Please model this.
Amino acid sequence: MPNRLIHEKSPYLRQHANNPVDWYPWGEEAFRRAKELDRPIFLSIGYSACHWCHVMEKESFADPEVAAVLNQHFVSIKVDREEHPAVDAQYMEAVQIITGQGGWPLSVFLTPDLQPFYGGTYWPREARFGMPGFLDVLRAIADAWEKRRHEVVAEADKVTVLLSDISNTLPGRHLLSEESVLQKAEQVLAEEFDPRWGGFGVAPKFPHPSVIRYLLTRFAFQDSQMALTMGLRTLDAMADGGMYDHVGGGFHRYSTDAMWMVPHFEKMLYDNALLARAYLDAWRLTRRERYGQIVNETLDYLLRDMHHPDGGFYASQDADSEGHEGQFYLWTYEEILNVLGPAAERFAEFYDITREGSFEGKNIPNRIRSANRWTALSVGERAQLEQEMAELRQRLRETRQMRTPPDHDDKIVLAWNAFAAEVFLLAGRVFDEERYLTAGTMALEFLLSHLRDERGMFCHSWCQGVRGTPAVLEDEAALAVALITGYETMARRDWLEIAVTLVEDMRARFHDAATGVFFMTPADHPHLLCRRLDYFDNPTPSGTALAAEAMLRLGHLGGEPSYLAIAEGALRSLAGWMQKSPIAVGHALFLRQTMVRPWTSWMFVLPSGEVGAVHEGKVPPPVSRWLSSLMSGYNPSMIVSINWLGDGSPSSATDGLPGTKSLPDRPAVNGEPTLYICQGASCGAPIVGEQLIEKVVQDHVSDALTARNSD
Model:
């Protein structure tokens, strides 16, 4: 008979609905039951695409003997971390305090008052490889609860105090200059950099898109060749290795080895959106075709395999299919031969396909061995080879689609969808690709219509028509950033208005004046032992960094100094972490690097009768052309404002919006399209007329490319 989880929308929870464990979802019913029975809580946290979560489910939670012990001695709660990010963050930090490490599945034992006293990650059913058996752990905890309750409660009190202390403190502010902080961060990264395979540290290796973006900006602004080497070497190695899906596009979660060869095969929306954003920056900086190809293939993968029919994007795809990890993505030599025929040898040569295989007797297509051969080809030869390989990959992709695909987690997570919407909109402008603009627009509209309740408050996730828990800081901040990009790319003033509302809400409900950074949750978020500051990237940008980005961009766009002050204060407060552990605060570091030069504002004022306003969601051709040219250049310290006059709009993009200081009146001179280029509050002479604006935009892009090519 199914347990309570059968009624849940979360695919991860439903995967446990037929366990003999008497599972409860996170909520009052479970908490009340633990107090009534005077039992400890066993809290298990995971997510649908987690391979080891599936392993523990099959080994332990489906086992009648394990279930009997859990049902007799504990109240068992199953949590999808993608539904309850604040709960996951709180107890992950607790387990790291207790054991020094964390991961998923996360296994935590709590008092009925939700205080953690013991925990770990994956435990096998029986002891092996130096790990205790899960049954042994359960029996030991049950015995301690019955016979040494006072020790358990004392430990829970101690962990709770430590949790509160760690969650609400920051290293002291450093008095070093801004450049000294940024330079120290680069030095620390250089010490951890793997010069052969790229990336930082040893295996397993994880992608760090925001760190890459910092390194690219560091090169662009400070001419650091070391930063450029670290950034591009890592991007190249990830794209060549098996962590990238060469047949279907998109990235797997991380690499189990140092050379990015063997991945953990799950695919996450946030990885693909954020990595596409980093490769897009690399393309804008270097114009290397390979980076643009990775962006296009990754976005095409999201549209093909992760797209909700109404516009959002699913959370993830599993690592497993047909009961085996990576089954969907692996190939035998014979399969390649059968599909490609005479061309198989050519494909095998460049994608490292052998009869022996590279993973459990099968092959993970990769370009590690052939990378140097690709780069040694002339531009024409490389283009011809890529066309040939693209046709072969297409044939393999069509064959692969006939296999049993990995399951999707069809949950729509607000922050992750905001990351996707932003990169689709920006890539749509950069590459002048209408279908990307449409996808980004649909994603934002989906979030605004489905993940906002009757009071106008956003929720963290949505699944099959049901909204989830209240939005956390990351959600609101990521959405604000995406909406600002949406305004820049699509001239949607209504999106800008919502972004301002979100920034005002973050300032009122999330900002901590004592430290300068932001809390993960508002004060009224339920069932938390303490409010934790949100300043570490893990694995997405921290809520504080995203909030700072929204305020930084909106402050420059709207001329609102209080937003700039809050953003600068938050980033300054993280100077200690920037020097100590730059990977942990990569997005904040990237933003701090953008501030070493004055931000530039490109402000277009357009009479509606001359150039035409946005109609049916489409920007008129001249404006679209200007935006595509501008955004194809690499300038992370640029903000764009588009405003039409004569259609009832104010003269400034943010006039009349709450919480902004209106910019000085900037008219359309002589009733013609007019461009103002400003640094701070200082603007140059107006540039008047379509032809002159076109020339200035094109000259700007050409000058930037010439300067970059000469470096």
Summary: The two ends are 68 Å apart (CA to CA). Residues 646-653, 658-664 have pLDDT under 50 and may be disordered. The CA atoms of residues 412 and 462 lie 5 Å apart.
